[in-house]
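Recap from last week: sequence in, structure out.
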Amino acid sequence: MTEVTAASPSSRGVEPLEPLRHSRSAGLGVQGSTEHVLFRYDPRNVPSITFYSLPHPCAGGAQTLDGARKMYRSMMSGLLGVTRHELPPVVEHLEAAVADMWVRTEMGAVHRDPLNDRMLLQTLLSTGPSQDAIRADLQRAATDQGSAPVVVILEPYDAVGTVLDQMRGADTVLVVHVDTTNVLGWVTIYGPNAEGADDIEGVPADTGLRTTPITFLTDTCFTSDRRAVRLQMCHETNSLSGIRR
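Predicted structure tokens:
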């Protein structure tokens, strides 16, 4: 399993987190049947682990990942009015600061760069035209919103729905995956209520988009100077996981 790391606030070095258990893949099952919990590790803050969940909103924090998980289960049990054994299945994601970027991966997922025989994160952190362009897009989005979007690492043929399930209406994420032609494929995805330029191409966030491979966006939704798309909502919702026609 990939070792998840976080940047040290003093040296910006890399410190290992405790081993994390595997979690279920989001898949393409019935929408709303799976909860997504996003944990963020920031050693500069107290508590150092914070979390929020989708599509049912639940947020909290603890000093350890185990403590945060227990808090989530307790809060979600109360929110849904069920026992902990009756809670819906959960996909867990972890965000950590790496080289001045917030990077998110699904816990238990392994993303490799087969072209260079190394982890995809290593390729993302190396130098090259694609990496320079990604950092430029992150900076552009940060200028739009006042903070840089989270980088979400996926596989090329993961469905777009795996990203939508992790997004709220005002969120912006930069999705990246390995690409056999350009080393990396990426696109910045703006939620329908996210701050940003008005000229970003819009796409309907409907059921058809959910089942489309993420490469559909990374290959087609870009212009000469940016790779970005804005989701267009079909109706009001807290997250993008329940969007339907």
